[in-house]
Specification:
Blueprint (H helix, E strand, L loop, with lengths): L2 H11 L1 H25 L5 H13 L3 H9 L4 H10 L6 H19 L3 H33 L4 H58 L14
Helix pairs in contact: 1-2, 2-7, 2-8, 3-4, 3-8, 4-5, 5-6, 5-8, 6-8, 7-8
Length: about 220
């Protein structure tokens, strides 16, 4: 279908098709923004913890903070927040890490509700457009006095395009909504585990005990 044909379909679909077009543009913009956001997040939490743990074991908290500042994403910032309170007791460190996690949770879920809303309303917008299209088709038939099956079928098929478009937008929105939900759940769990491991390392450091290497070394 060329651009002219695409525009003809949108125009013939009426307000519902224009609404679906707007919803599609919004959904695509959010999907791109979320994909770029997750691409900027740190993907090797074990490697980051290993670097931090080695510096904590060497009694080099400023060096551990420098490691966090050299990395991108939310996890390094959260761990840095805990390291800056590294001399406090374990409860204070854990509370600081929990606050940092909660503050960053909104960033993970930003605009996700919009995609979910689009997934829900897009089929109804398409159905509404179909109903209006069928009504308009039968009105044209009544005015023109031509009610052959071919004419009726042409009008109905044109109206049903909006239903198909609404379902298409909804399916794509649901796919990405579930994908981002899964990414958020996994990343949130990863941040919680990393934060707890950092709290453990700082606790051993503050009590003068040797930090168990299994807290920051990759599993063999």
């Amino acid at each position: 279908m060329d651009i002219k044909g695409f525009l003809d379909v949108i125009i013939s679909g009426g307000p519902a098709m224009w609404a679906l077009l707007v919803l599609s543009v919004v959904a695509v913009a959010i999907v791109i923004e979320r994909l770029l956001f997750f691409a900027t997040q740190h993907s090797d939490s074990r490697g980051l913890l290993r670097q931090i743990g080695e510096r904590i074991a060497a009694d080099d908290l400023p060096g551990a903070i420098a490691v966090c500042r050299s990395e991108k994403g939310m996890l390094p910032k959260i761990l840095e927040f805990g390291l800056q309170r590294g001399e406090k007791n374990r409860a204070d460190i854990t509370d600081a890490l929990s606050i940092a996690l909660m503050e960053n949770l909104n960033s993970l879920e930003r605009n996700l509700g919009v995609i979910g809303t689009i997934a829900v309303i897009a089929p109804f917008v398409g159905l509404f457009g179909t109903v209006l299209g069928i009504i308009r088709a039968f009105q044209d038939i009544a005015l023109k006095g031509n009610s052959t099956p071919a004419v009726v079928a042409a009008g109905v098929s044109e109206a049903l395009i909006t239903t198909a478009a609404g379902l298409f937008v909804a399916v794509i929105a649901v796919i990405f909504f579930n994908y981002f939900k899964t990414r958020i759940k996994g990343y949130n769990q990863e941040m919680i585990v990393a934060s707890n491991q950092l709290a453990e390392m700082l606790h051993f450091h503050n009590t003068g005990a040797a930090i168990p290497t299994d807290l920051y070394q990759p599993a063999k």
